[in-house]
Design brief:
single chain, 8 helices, disordered N terminus
């Protein structure tokens, strides 16, 4: 567990994983975000509700995405976890913090071209919910071929579900930023600091 300066525990997963450069900065960034969200928790109810909706939507995607990976990933000559540069973005972090999901112990990739540190010989070590969104939504050419063999509604529904999550991720981020900005503008300490 990581502990933020506010005293809130920030769960980390993957103990025993190889150390990755910039882990300390990753930890500090997550502690700072946890403090900020904790300080404004009372005005973030709507953003938290959207984050919980995203979690439900990801959970609904999981069976189909797991099946696609099971049918294609172990036979892949160019695993995307090695050939693509992926990272955990700000919306991913907001989602983890607002839903109290475990925080991965490091950024997914620190330099372009590096293999993802969560890749193991059996696939991703991260539970699907706390993988970078770009990994959750990615459908490789082999998986697209599998989907084309299925009924058209399955493929269309999957694309619609992914787009809905994309919109909700944006809604969540906009709501967090808007509420915190409004709270900062209306707080007594910010107005006295400006009159200085």
């Amino acid at each position: 567990m990581m502990k933020g300066d506010s005293g809130k525990n920030i769960p980390a997963i993957g103990s025993g994983m190889d150390p990755v450069p910039r882990t300390w900065k990753w930890h500090q960034s997550n502690c700072a975000l946890a403090r900020l969200l904790s300080r404004h928790q009372r005005v973030l109810n709507k953003a938290t509700a959207v984050a919980l909706e995203i979690r439900r939507e990801i959970d609904e995607l999981t069976p189909l995405m797991t099946e696609l990976c099971r049918r294609t990933c172990r036979f892949c000559p160019e695993p995307c976890c090695i050939t693509n540069t992926v990272w955990i973005d700000f919306r991913d972090l907001l989602f983890f913090h607002l839903t109290d999901e475990p925080i991965p112990p490091c950024q997914a990739a620190s330099d372009p071209g590096d293999a993802c540190p969560f890749l193991s010989h059996r696939g991703c070590r991260l539970p699907r919910r706390i993988r970078p969104w770009m990994c959750i939504k990615y459908i490789c050419p082999a998986q697209r071929a599998v989907l084309q063999k299925k009924e058209r509604p399955v493929s269309a529904a999957l694309c619609a579900d992914i787009q809905k999550i994309e919109r909700n991720r944006l809604r969540m981020e906009v709501e967090v930023i808007r509420r915190i900005r409004r709270k900062i503008r209306t707080s007594p300490s910010s107005s006295s600091a400006c009159s200085g």
